[in-house]
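User: Fold this one for me? It's RsmB/NOP family class I SAM-dependent RNA methyltransferase.
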Amino acid sequence: MIHNISAMSNATTSDDTHAQEIAATTPAQKRALSYSSTIATLFNQVMSTSMPADRIIGQYFREHKKHGSKDRRVIRESLFGLFRWWGWLNQLESSKQHTTWFQQLSTCAMLEQHEWNDITQAWNDFADWPQARADKTLLENDASLEAKLAGFITLSGIETSQISQLLPQWFWQYCPIDTTEQYALVNAMSTRPPIWARVQTLSTAKVIESLNQAGVEAKASAYFTDAISLGHKSINLNEITAYKLGHIEIQDLASQVIGQICQPKNHEQWWDACSGAGGKTLQLYSLMSQQNSTFTGSITASDIRHKPLEELRKRAKRAGFDNINVAPWKGEILPVNVKAFDGVLVDAPCSCTGTWRRNPDMRWLDDASAITDKPILQLAILRRSAAAVKSGGKLVYATCSLSPSENEQIVKDFLSETSEFELEPVTHPFTGQQCDTLTIWPQQADSDGMFVAKMRRK
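Assistant: Here's what I get for RsmB/NOP family class I SAM-dependent RNA methyltransferase.
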């Protein structure tokens, strides 16, 4: 099923419609009605503007300080839950538009297993379900994806519903995966994203101890010595001392794979050609500074946007990282010297399909053009950036896409037009398998999706 924005927007109702059509008699029903109106407004705003949901909801909370922590949690988790399950929820239909909306809210609460029972019960009452279905909505102790599909079919009566519908149809065309892994991928994409952090400037043990004392459940990763898991619950980083002092940076585990593949040495000169706000720049610096011998290398970060580079400067200052230079891109002219670097990292702009778990709204806002529009630009950036690699130096190409047309094909096209570079095999950090290029899938280690390839100038 191919979904479109107009169809999704029409599924929700306005505040006026809620007020006219629904009679809220209890305090819980009144709160539920207020929440539903706010969520509908935010949902429609995301769909009509195609702006990221986290940006829209962040702006909303900044403008509406009245909401307490519970209010914010109900609104935020319900909104993102709707996007997570929209492949099923948008199939619900009722003779009344507002009834469809409450059916979607009620079903989302069931699938997400939300804890605010008084609110979800009110939504269920407003949904006007046939009684025979409403009595069978509980998932009991089974929260598996199969059980959720069965619960949705029982509640909705839509027996054609399938697990694959939780991702848009075009995704399966452009991001093929073995059918034996399809369920695991959708299951990962349908769960709340993990929070991963990377330790810098202190030992992992000390940082974990500090975080645990602050009430944060931090655990060491089994894969990288400087990676730690912070669970799946929201954290106010501004209240965490380790973060404020630059001892940790939030960085997904799949993203951390890229720096590990780069293997920078502390005497090398590295260029992060598409640095953004500098997460991987800081990782490269941290990996270099952890080595025992004297740090004599440096890192240069470039981006076409100035605001992310300013954010990088702030993050580097917070961590006390000095040997980081900034060289903004100005058009197509190389912002650094030719053949001047031991290593060049090209984390290219992409469709970001690997981050859909973290940004579930994007799977319904984007279409196939999010993938098909990128390869020309990606190859051009890789081609230009490669000129900065010195003889014997490393060239690392990465994206947070799961599409071969943005990944393996770009590397193949690049190597077909030059004889100066060759592919270096890499080891999959989560499976130990040797491979020419590496795709990290979200289900493999509870992370985002990521692609990386390592080349060397002959």
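One thing worth pointing out: Confidence is low (pLDDT under 50) at residues 1-20.
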